[in-house]
Design a protein that fits this description.
Blueprint lengths: L9 E4 L2 E4 L14 E4 L2 E15 L6 H6 L5 H13 L3 E7 L6 H11 L13 E3 L37 E5 L9 E2 L28 H4 L9 E8 L2 E8 L12 H17 L22 E7 L15 H4 L12 H10 L28 E5 L4 E7 L25 E8 L4
Parallel strand pairs: 4-5, 10-11
Antiparallel strand pairs: 1-2, 3-4, 4-14, 5-7, 6-7, 8-9, 9-10, 11-12, 13-14
InterPro entries: Endo/exonu/phosph_ase_sf, Endo/exonuclease/phosphatase
GO molecular function: endonuclease activity
Keywords: Endonuclease, Hydrolase, Nuclease, Signal
Length: about 425
Amino acid sequence: MSPRLRGALAAVTTVGLVCAGALVALPASAARVTHPENGKRTETLRVATYNLSLNRNAAGQLVTDLSTTANPQARTVAEVIQRTDPDVVLLNEFDYVEGGVAVDLFRENYLEVGQNGATPVEYPYAFVAPSNTGVASGFDLNNNGAIGGGDDAFGFGAYEGQYGMVVLSKHPIATDEVRTFQHFLWKDMPGALLPDDPATDAPADWYSPDELDVFRLSSKSHWDVPIEVGRRTVHILASHPTPPTFDGPEDRNGLRNHDEIRFWADYVTPGKGRYIYDDEGDRGGLRPASSFVIVGDQNADPLDGDSVDAAIDQLLDNRRIVDPRPASAGAVEAAALQGGANLLHRGDPAFDTADFADGAPGNLRADYVLPSRDLRPRDAGVFWPVQADPLSALTGVFPFPSSDHRLVWVDVSVPRAGR
């Protein structure tokens, strides 16, 4: 497919959202299922999230790798997407490249080419925007006595855009209505869990006042990407909170992870998101009647791992949100075979979505697709085949041929009338 026919890409400047192209009026893909439900006709939308680890160690390397059709990892993750065939998918850890160059190459050279007998998949619409990863803060954020490097960026990264995000869709993206929250300041969240320096008596003082005046909540970004499914709008709420590790007793990353997750809980709860402002300066959360799906690698397990207690419960226990609890037999098998920390976990391994180090933290549920209650879940799963399945070659064991995360998908019923 010619890049001229692709959906609108977007770039965020310091003053707001700027469209880098016009949305092309291509037809949305046919509904996966159309059926009567409570006297209304609905269609089934498959929404997925996939941390596919297509980040690279140097700026520009991803474009180089995707410029041919022969990159083994790209071919493998593309096949995973083709085998599951989501209508909308968030890709985490996909380096941001200005102008959408990398995502165009991934679509044209990998997704639109059948991998190992899988059916090619086309996503005419995409949304990309800058990430806070690798953006220099100018401050010593890790308090090690030196300024510079990934740990002192607004989001950890060796260069700007590393570990970025992409939303791909078979349905049109309402680009003019997208909201991004890259620049929202952590201190502007009421009751923010700001970290404390244990070496002092003052509270919540790990970051200085000058640092808090510029410190952004999102380690990558938070996006509200409206998708037009027939006459219905479904808001894809995309993010990738920081891992709650790689810090010290101050737990600055664990606390930030908690509040990055809290952001969406407040955004979708009427009355709680009034403090929120987007990159264009517009305030407020999501309108109460809106349909939405929260997607992303949240880096938080309900029972195990290093996240702050109840961090992910802010979403799982929210009255506006349904947890379809996607599961797989492959995750159960992996936990038993790998042992280690998995044997001590309290959570059911069937719900794991990430194959982490056996010693610690073990495999965890880190990746989520969480629809609003009006979008009735019809099916859900995690792409984690058992070893006897030939498709298990796509997930493998360390060093992984694709990613240490698994694609997670949920089918929801979307009413065809109304907005």
